[in-house]
Amino acid sequence: MKHDFRAPNSEDEGARFCVWLEQETIDSLRRSCGDAEATKSAIFLFANRAYEAHMPESQIGQLFGRCIVRAGFQEKDEEPHSLGLSFLARSPRRCTHRLSRPRRPEAMADWGVSSVRTPRPLVLVLSAAGILGFIIWWAGREPCFATPAECVDALYQAALDGDVHRYVACLIPYRRGNHDLKSRAHIMAASVEDLQRWFQAGVEIWNGDGQNYAKVRIIEDRPGSRRQVFYFFEQHGGCWQITEIEHGKDLPERPK
Length: 256
What we know:
By secondary structure, this protein is an alpha+beta fold. Helices cover 48% and strands 19% of the residues. The protein has 10 helices and 4 strands.
């Protein structure tokens, strides 16, 4: 997919390009897991595509960081060497020299990259905006839930594991300030007390005033009772987070 961020009135096309580039990079990183050379190639391909599209510098580090997390890299992979970023940390002259003479140029052609020559500005962008931005982003990162179902699954798992930090990360930021972590931990523990089983019974997604919203209906089974809980979501930056939690009427117990 081709795009030029310099073109006027290209916001919608730019958003589609970012979605496409993110998914392509995630797929490449997942396929390259455990292979340092393949990981470097995936990163370089991302860089070339972003540069050729004249993507704003402020978006490069954030988009790349999201790709790394969603590709499933673990904590042990945070080091630049593990991610294949060490080759970008060298001086621009050496980096440009190495990358402008890849061992397999035909492979780059297969990826649809018109040129493998790395311009000096790109190296500077990656070094200053990409790597530094990624490190800053990674240090304060939060999970990005691609679907409401994924978010509510993470919320229940965090509650069952007793992990209040993971639990709070599922909530939209303005919903986190109502309680301190100690109080939130009590609320979290109470939400799964005596819980035997839970499952998703329905998902609704809609758009209003350009904003995506969702509602997930959960059925919870406890000894002697069955109840429904409704979770409401908003989507921001492609990530879903919980805005409201409402408890519905109790339901008849499931057949034994």
